[in-house]
Amino acid sequence: MAKNYYETLGIDKKASPDDIKKAFRKLAQKHHPDKGGDESVFKEITEAYSTLSDEKKRREYDNYGQTFPGGGASGFNGGGFDFNGFGGQGVEFDISDLFGDLFGGARGGSRIKRGRDISIDVEVSFKESVLGSKRSVLITKVSKCDVCQGSGAKPNTEMHTCKTCNGAGRIHETRNTPFGAISTQRGCPECEGSGKIPREKCETCQGRGVLRKEEEINLTVPEGIDGGEMIRMPGLGEAVKGGTSGDLYVKIHVKPHATFRKEGLNLIMQMPLKLTDALLGTTITVNTIDDKSLEVKVPSMTSAEETLRIRGKGVKVDGAAGDLLIHITATLPKKLSGKAKKAIEDLKAEGL
Question: 210-268, pLDDT tens digit by residue?
Fold first, then answer.
């Protein structure tokens, strides 16, 4: 079920950008893990703010539900978030430092860094969207180095204590503000918060622990998915040294089908019939979405258009199954032979 970002932030759908900022500020202070808040709730309000604070993403969300920018990397963990002004577009910021710098790092550097969430677009056939499928997708992203396993050290190399932070992983700073001097701390840039420095750096990633490379992702497309829906793949986003990987979001686009269309769990198709078959009734063969043949008896029609319902032959999701709706239409012949014309005149004489 898609999330309601407006309910998450406790605001109206017509809320102004300032209202969104104020709501997020209040909830972020309340739920941040460094202040004893619930981490899962904090992540939800961050996700909601990252979408609603961006004009384009908010417009896409209002139109299509939970959406993310397609065609490349995007996410919450950029850098330079300004708590006072909620700078930038409200998306590119390091949420892990939101309270660490402001209140001096309450948990002493215990926060775990997280890589960026990224999103891609994948097009599937109508049949795949109904029946589900498995796909392999090649994407280019920042991944953990396979040689050093993300440590940044040359294999079998000793690690020594970082001299910049003396192994603490964080460095302390004092800032002068209008309210007086405030002591803050931030991650050590030399060891990137690990407190250790390798004597020899990994030659493959140059000590970064991560590098940009092409990676194959195995994707499962669930049954009954609609175009515009997102599939979340935890831990398959971009990697970061000394932390956990972000998530990968896959936006699904569904190609139209020549025969079928979908309404909820129902599949709908059109079936034209000759006038005689419509009047007398007939049996037709229907090819279902799973390429099976189905014999369907059509009773004599009482109107030019009727709908036949084949129960249980629609979309199947979580044990529920929709129906196959066949819209029958009687078609008129373009030409009539003399014999056919006389037969119709006889019917007319009988008041038919």
Answer: 999 999 999 999 999 999 999 999 999 999 987 899 999 999 999 999 999 999 999 99
Task: Report the mean per-residue pLDDT for the chain.
Answer: 81
179-211 confidence digits (pLDDT tens): 567 777 778 888 877 788 888 999 999 888 899
Question: What integer is the mean pLDDT of 274-289?
Answer: 90
Q: What pLDDT is stored for residue 268 in this prediction?
A: 97
As a three-state string, the secondary structure of the chain is CCCCHHHHHCCCCCCCHHHHHHHHHHHHHHHCHHHCCCHHHHHHHHHHHHHHCCHHHHHHHHHHCCCCCCCEECCCECCCCCCCCCCCCCCCECHHHCCHHHHCCCCCCCCCCECCCEEEEEEECHHHHHHCEEEEEEEEEEEECCCCCCCCECCCCCEEECCCCCCCCEEEEEEEECCEEEEEEEECCCCCCCCEEECCECCCCCCCCEEEEEEEEEEEECCCCCCCCEEEECCCCCCCCCCECCCEEEEEEECCCCCEEEECCEEEEEEEEEHHHHHHCEEEEEECCCCCEEEEEECCCCCCEEEEEECCCCCEECCEECCEEEEEEEECCCCCCHHHHHHHHHHHHCCC
pLDDT at position 95, please? 40
